[in-house]
Amino acid sequence: MKILAKFLAAAFALACSAVAAHAQYPERPITLVIPYGAGGATDIAGRNLASVTPKYVPQPVLPVNRTGAGGVTGTASVANAEPDGYTMMVARVGSHTVNPAMKATLPYSIEDFDYIGVFEINPVVCAVSAESDIESMDDLVSRIKENPGSVSYSSSGVGSLLHLSSPLVIDAYGVEKANEALIHLPFRGGGAAATAVITGNADFICTNSSALAGHIKNGVLRPLLVTTEEPVPGIDAPTVNELGHPELNALVGWSGIAGPKGLPEEVKTKWGEWLQKVGEDEDFLKKARDLGSVPVQMSVQESIDFINNQYEVFRELVVKLGMEVE
């Protein structure tokens, strides 16, 4: 009996230690992959979120930019990572809806991820350099119609929201074959794409408000429109409703948290709790709103439904504009 008692005690202790070890996630720092370059909307959203995680996450959440191929490189690295919760990512409109909608061959699909939740939505702003003689969307559209193939726009790479948004907006203004009427200049990230317009190396950009708000505030970019029903504080531009194009309200960016498919339930539960706390954090909310972003809290299913709907919308537009990429 004594031997049996010792065996049961040892087994119980071992089981308890295993449970305790399992309950310790995270035991080490968590890598948060940002699949686009510094200064863009994805980078800003991810670093804003990571800046407040020390209040709620017991280990550091370390943002890492893994750029390349318009978000594909970093996103694929997460899809192929060990699903242990130590490699997560900022899922983005470009990486998870535009890229799949545009590119026939990708090293991942939107089903290769476990989604925790969408935490931010960003309206799109079209802007030109403050030194440009283009004062309005009418000026921009007139120039494109008069000289098709002479006006350039910058993006964060093939398959990004920036790549699709400019032709989409110009198409809404009645420019035939909008994709062919513009010169696309891809850069490694939204920050570099915005800089190209500021320095005069590209004529205009259509990207998320968070990536341009600082440049607009500093007076180096002139906003021409914003894809919201109501004006956005700090962005002195007419809304698409005011310009007679309410259909462009569907053109928005978003950021969420995702990990490789097969995450343990504990990891998903803890990330869900952390994301909820971050979404209620006053520092996070203030910074997001100051950039013209809209903080949101979506459940896992709401996020999946939202992402799938975005994919369908963009896929339809890609086909219409002839923007499929092999």
Record the SSE blueprint.
Elements: H1 2-22, E1 30-34, H2 41-52, E2 61-65, H3 72-79, E3 87-92, H4 93-102, E4 113-129, H5 137-146, E5 151-155, H6 161-172, H7 178-181, E6 182-186, H8 190-198, E7 204-208, H9 209-217, E8 221-226, E9 252-260, H10 265-278, H11 282-290, E10 294-295, H12 300-321
Parallel strand pairs: 1-2, 1-3, 5-6
Antiparallel strand pairs: 3-9, 4-7, 4-8, 4-9, 4-10
Helix pairs in contact: 2-11, 4-12, 6-12
Number of domains: 2
- Order of SSEs, N→C? HEHEHEHEHEHHEHEHEEHHEH
State the helical fraction.
40-55%
Quaternary structure of the protein:
single chain
Question: CATH fold name of the largest domain, please?
Answer: D-Maltodextrin-Binding Protein, domain 2
Instruction: Report the end-to-end length measured between terminal Cα atoms.
Output: 71 Å
Instruction: Tell me the fraction of residues in β-strands, as a range.
Output: 15-25%
Describe the global form. Answer: globular
Helix count from the secondary structure assignment: 12
Could you state the CATH homologous superfamily of the largest domain? Bordetella uptake gene, domain 1
Question: From the 3D coordinates, which CATH architecture of the largest domain would you assign?
Answer: 3-Layer(aba) Sandwich
The poorly predicted ranges are 1-22
Q: Average pLDDT across residues?
A: 91
The tally of beta strands, per DSSP, is 10
Largest sheet: 8 strands, mixed
Structural class, from helix and strand content?
alpha/beta
Radius of gyration of CA atoms, rounded to a whole number:
22 Å
CATH class call of the largest domain: Alpha Beta
